[in-house]
Design goal:
This protein is of the alpha/beta class. Helices cover 50% and strands 17% of the residues. It folds into two domains: 180 residues, Glycogen Phosphorylase B (Rossmann fold), CATH 3.40.50; 183 residues, Glycogen Phosphorylase B (Rossmann fold, 3-Layer(aba) Sandwich), CATH 3.40.50.
């Protein structure tokens, strides 16, 4: 019988990395059956999608509670599929709030469990790592410092490198990009990257736009471009936009925007690493509901929340979080990265160290090898 692999990825970045993983699995084992939660990238690579990532893209305690009954229905439906389809392995990609609970339940049915892009429990719940050891068999981690952390807790961990190093490519030249989105390559471009979830658009994009507009009043030559994630509808983006503002919406060319922008304002998350790898100066911003932030402050045990700062071990990029997400705070920091060559160069030099900490290309292939190895080990025991 062909191997059965169940994969759960609950958001846009997980779908992106899951897509390359599914492709690698199919290349090495063409007859394997792959199914679960994913998005367009994973589906295109050959995975059967039970639920799409855009149905689960909620952040913060308050936001998830509001959609509790939907998540519960998805959770129990997937557990039934574990029982009926009997996958040889369950592969979890990031999305810890859902995936950790699901793995604990699924493990009771005897399924092997593998975590790719591990939960950042080293930041918000170090004690949970030992609990995870009871139901996570192995991990493919994307940061080198995660290996000793998880192995100390009793989980076998392999440093596979960061999958961004494989897919971080642009398809258009700067001239082609600017022509497509009606931008002038001779004038500065401020990229706004508000995230891939509706709540991020609602809470972050208006302030990003106001900041850009405030800088634009002093520098009329500044162009503003918004990176639209595939999980964001045109409707939710229009709601946040000021119709009087001359901002371009960039779709299906986010990497080009990151590379060719003069500077950027980026929502905390994977996009901070992506922007860093393009060595484009930027600031990090993030805001959730007051209650979610209160809980987060109690849980988070590290000084910085931006992945680029965590990876580099120092504050390479300024962070504006919660109450600091204000135009009067953001404007001077962003303006200096746009127009002060010394400030720009200082940050670019620091960003150059980030790539060295992320390993080498080939993460999807290395991860696929581990998953197939685990299945073979499982088959030999039967």
């Amino acid at each position: 019988m062909p191997p059965k692999i169940m994969i759960l990825a609950g958001e846009a970045s997980g779908d992106l990395h899951g897509g390359t993983l599914v492709y690698s699995l199919k290349e090495k084992c063409p007859d394997c059956e792959i199914f679960g939660i994913g998005g367009d990238h994973m589906q295109k690579a050959g995975m059967e999608i039970f639920y799409h990532v855009d149905q689960l893209a909620y952040i913060g305690f308050t936001e998830v509670v509001l959609h509790y009954f939907f998540f519960r229905r998805v959770f129990h439906d997937l557990l039934k599929k574990v029982q009926s389809l009997k996958p040889d392995i369950l592969v979890l990609i990031d999305y810890p709030g859902f995936n950790l609970r699901f793995a604990a339940k699924a493990k009771k049915y005897g399924v092997k469990t593998f975590y790719f892009i591990a939960p950042q429990v080293w930041a918000w719940g170090q004690g949970r790592a030992k609990k995870m050891a009871k139901f996570i068999d192995r991990m493919g981690v994307i940061f080198d410092f995660e290996v000793p952390f998880f192995e100390k807790a009793g989980i076998k961990a392999d440093f596979v490198g960061h999958p961004l190093l494989d897919g971080l490519k642009t398809q258009k030249s700067m001239e082609e990009f600017c022509n497509q989105f009606n931008l002038d390559p001779q004038k500065p471009i401020l990229a706004l990257l508000p995230g891939s979830r509706p709540q991020e658009i609602e809470k972050l994009l208006p302030v990003m736009l106001e900041t850009g507009s405030a800088i634009q009043r002093e520098h009329p030559e500044l162009q503003i471009a918004i990176g639209k994630a595939p999980t964001i509808s045109a409707y939710s983006l229009d709601k946040a936009l000021n119709t009087k503002m001359n901002a371009r919406i960039v779709e299906n060319a986010t990497y080009e925007l990151m590379q060719y922008a003069t500077a950027a304002i980026v929502a905390s998350g994977t996009a901070t690493l992506e922007t860093a790898l393009f060595q484009t100066p930027f600031v990090i911003t993030y805001r959730v509901s007051p209650f979610s932030y209160f809980l987060g402050k109690k849980l988070i045990k590290i000084e910085n929340i931006g992945l680029v700062n965590v990876v580099s071990g120092q504050k390479v990029v300024p962070e504006f979080i919660q109450s600091a997400v204000r135009v009067d705070h953001l404007k001077p920091a962003v303006a200096s990265l746009l127009f002060d060559q010394n400030a720009r160069q200082q940050q670019i030099e620091k960003l150059q160290t980030v790539r060295k900490r992320l390993g080498s290309p080939g993460a999807p292939v290395r991860t696929a090898n581990i998953i197939l190895e685990m299945i073979q080990v499982n088959e030999k025991k039967q």
